[in-house]
Amino acid sequence: MSAHERMLSPSAAAPSSAAPTTSAPAARGVRLAVRLLLLVGVLLLAGVPRLLTLHLFLDSDEINFWMPRSMRFLDAMQSGNFAETAQSTHPGVTTMWLGSAGILLRDSLVAAGVLADVPFPLSLTLSRLPIALVHTCGVLLGYLLLHRLFATRSPEPGGVALALLAAAFWATDPFVVAYARILHVDGLTTTFATLSLLAGGIFWVRGGHPAYLLLSAGAGALATLSKSPGVAVIPIIGLAGIAAWHYDGMPLRRVLLALGAWAATFALTLWLCYPALWVDPARAWQQMRVGVEIEGASPHVIGNFFLGQATDTPDARYYPVALLMRTTPLTLIGLLLLPFVWRRDADSASTRRMLALLAAYILVFVLAMSLFPKKLNRYSVPVFPALDILAATGWVWALLRLRDLRGGAVPLAARVLPFGVAALISLAALNMLWWHPYGVIAYNQIVGGAPRAERTFLIGDGEGLGEAARWLNGQPDITGVRVSSTMINSLQPFLMRGAQSSTPRNGQFAVQDGYALIYVRHTQRGIPAAPFGAVYANQTPVYTVQAHGVTLASVYQLAPPIADLHNATFGDALTLRGTQTDLEGLRGGHGITLTVQWQAQQPPMQEYLMFVHVLDPQGQKVAQIDVSPAGTAQPPTSWQVGRTLTWAHPLPVPADLPPDTYWLAIGLYNPVTFARLSVATPAPPIAPDAGGNALLLPLVVR
């Protein structure tokens, strides 16, 4: 056994003559402890990113499709109406099973009195918990299969290191993690298809027990029940059987029997796990066929975007570009090292064949998906654990070559593999933490990261809306106005009780709309549709959610309607957008009510006061007020750029003011120096002299 295996493998080599001999029971105890330590490490790498902060955002497909489908699926199961479990063309059966488990978990906790109330973030966490646990266990099982493939029964050089590094890359791949945290179909296809390939490889490539063949078939069926592209494992398993007959001399009869057993187990698993097949298999099959032939053959309903252009049908470059940009830097470098694996004399034919099967799966999957006009880069996530395994192989080869260099001291060379693997796992974990919790927008930093992806793919599935809602919940007027957005299904659950969101009708905001939220996917293809386009082009957002150089969501304040618009800028900071005068109280001795609407173009450097003078036709002052423009104790220097402040100021005037045309002179001044801020709007020719630097508005008293 080589030095690196003594460092990373629980199997112990014979000790040197200078060291005391370790007893067999003690050696077995050490090996067991190391194995348990590695298992716990993989479990933590897989579980922490998948299970923490499940409440932060809501994927649009979850709230629009998979949560209601899971509820209907559960109702169908509880009522015995099994035909109604055929809810989707995907078919999404595993997703709905796990979604139902989340619903039952939540209801059980409430019924048991553990939870008196279930706010939405907690409900979302409980809904996602079963699916996150399945993915975590899937990675752990994947590690055990990888260990069986590469590190037991005639282990390859660096086999333990390869199994550990491959599992770590899989566990920390932010793209894979993103879809292992939500109630969706692509992540489950990813996990089950990978397990199917690994278990199949153990049987066909390593000559493992037939139980691995059955595990492969069952996992392949679950991958297909998750999403129909999971059938891509079928030709790969068939190819593995042909390779076992051709290269290993496995009798053809045994190959055919094994493939038949795999197919039978695959079919049985489909039938057992899909209740609709129990009572109406024709309907279930027809629904799946429609999903492939009709939905897959049609462009995406929300349109698409590729390489900076709006397009309904991206070309054949789409998935190769997606694979390049969705890899992590470590995975990309490992893949570039991979071709040299075939040149190593120490690599066995079985290892090369397993790698070839994984590569064939990637190729088959990508080619098949490229045939359909409906393309999203998340559709490629099922191949990424295979890419991670191939990349880990490239890295381990490089470390072995480095270890074999004779230029350094032998003790140092012997530590290259364990230290190198530990460093790579640490870097992979740090990269995962860098993107958490928004692995949905994780793109390779080497090729431009998320900002480049924003110019390449349609992005945004709801991430950031939870943060936007939390900011909106902190606004004092949030329960008195509505939030206008096209993403209300993913936004509304996070808004506080009493706050409402709505979608504009007829291309116009409603009077009740106080905020507009514009999402990233609606700005990638140019100016958003009305009425958001005018806001996006002409206003500054009062709040943005940004992550990794991408603005995910922008919140704009919608100014309430005001009678007279002016847009007069005082100095370089504050703009008087409009005014409105109410003369109803004049004859009752209550004076005039002047409503002003201000907006900050940039934070003022100091506090200013607003003066309002009422001038008669000769320019004589008949009334005046000097107040804060906001009408509160809040100084203008704390105003937020883009926010509109509307405030009504009582303006006392004599009750016997004779009918005539008066003038309102409005301006801002420094309360220390009394210097007025300049205003560019000229006074009307007939207006009296107001002393300069004032906005003059006619006031007709009848």
List its traits.
702 residues, alpha+beta, 3 domains, 5-stranded mixed sheet, 4-stranded antiparallel sheet, 47% helix
Task: Describe the secondary structure blueprint for this structure.
Layout: H1 3-8, H2 24-51, H3 60-79, H4 93-111, H5 120-150, H6 159-172, H7 174-178, H8 186-204, H9 210-226, H10 233-247, H11 252-273, H12 276-279, H13 281-295, E1 305-306, E2 309-310, H14 318-326, H15 329-337, H16 349-370, H17 384-404, H18 410-414, H19 416-435, H20 449-454, H21 465-473, E3 482-484, H22 488-491, E4 500-502, E5 513-519, H23 532-538, E6 543-547, E7 550-557, E8 564-570, E9 574-582, E10 592-600, E11 609-615, E12 621-627, E13 644-651, E14 660-669, E15 695-701
Parallel strand pairs: 3-4, 3-5
Antiparallel strand pairs: 1-2, 5-7, 6-7, 8-9, 9-10, 10-13, 11-12, 11-14, 14-15
Helix pairs in contact: 2-5, 2-6, 3-4, 4-5, 5-6, 5-8, 6-17, 6-19, 8-9, 8-10, 9-11, 10-11, 10-16, 15-17, 16-17, 17-19
Characterize the structure shown.
A hairpin with a 2-residue loop joins strand 1 and strand 2. This protein is of the alpha+beta class and 702 residues long. Strands 4-3-5-7-6 form a five-stranded mixed beta sheet, sandwiched between helices. Strands 8-9-10-13 form a four-stranded antiparallel beta sheet, with no helix packed on it. The protein has a four-stranded antiparallel beta sheet with strand order 12-11-14-15, with no helix packed on it. The protein has three domains: 30-429, no CATH class; 465-557, no CATH class; 564-701, Immunoglobulin-like (Sandwich). Helices cover 47% and strands 13% of the residues.
